[in-house]
Amino acid sequence: NNTHEDYVEKLYNTLTKGDLDGSMAIYNKTIVQWRRFDVFFERVLRPVLYNIGQRWADGILDVATEHIASNTVQSMIRVIQSRANRKPNNISVILCMPAGEEHKIPSDILETFLVSKGYKVYNLGSLPATDLLGYIYRNRPDIIFITASLRDSINPTKSLFRKIVEQFDVPVIVGGYAFSDYMDLSLSRVPAIIKCALEFVNNKRECSYVECCPEFITNLKHTNKV
Predict the structure, then answer these.
(1) pTM score of the predicted model
(2) CATH value of 4-82 in 1.10.1240.10, 1.25.10.10, 2.60.120.380, 3.40.50.620
(3) pLDDT tens across 33-65, in order?
(4) What is the three-class DSSP state of 20?
(5) Is residue 55 within 8 Å of residue 62, measured between CB atoms?
(6) What CATH code is assigned to 92-225?
(7) Is 204 exposed, middle or buried, given 0-12, 13-18 or 19+ CB atoms closer than 10 A?
(8) Cα–Cα distance between 114 and 131 in angstroms, integer?
(9) Are 30 and 48 in contact (CB under 8 A)?
């Protein structure tokens, strides 16, 4: 079997060449070996995305190559999503980003994982707060995730968080690279976090998932913690 370092190197090469078939072949091998999308993400895709972003920031990759890689990742995610076939669990999730945040890949990855676990997901991307609030009012999700990758998005994310919790009694989870100094959670923990958050908000119970506390549960009502 290949090591995850082997997969990282190979996927970096296929993504930066825009080779969707080659990228999917690597994904398929990891699924045969590890059986789980979240393991593929944590061990392979996440390091590759970090390497691409870092090399672009350092001037090693040009903008065109970075765009090719990003577009290929998005195409991969669409293919992987189309394969998802899990029994619905009747929990609806909104994924969104503050206005001005352009990095949608993290939301797409989270959507892919949640769909594979049976959640009904509305992935709205970046949109004005008024539009998001209207959508929440009409669709009444069980939980909301706000993701942000840019440091400049931290304050807009806090503002969006406050507007949501002022109007709706719904748990809101904040995360993404912009908040990596405060939290760094794996995809595999997300279902436990969702269950924990719903218990906290709906039943006013203390979190029973020690690994989720205190940062996420505290953040549901106190944005200054992030």
Answers:
(1) 0.81
(2) 1.10.1240.10
(3) 998 888 998 899 989 998 998 898 899 999 999
(4) helix
(5) no
(6) 3.40.50.280
(7) exposed
(8) 23
(9) no
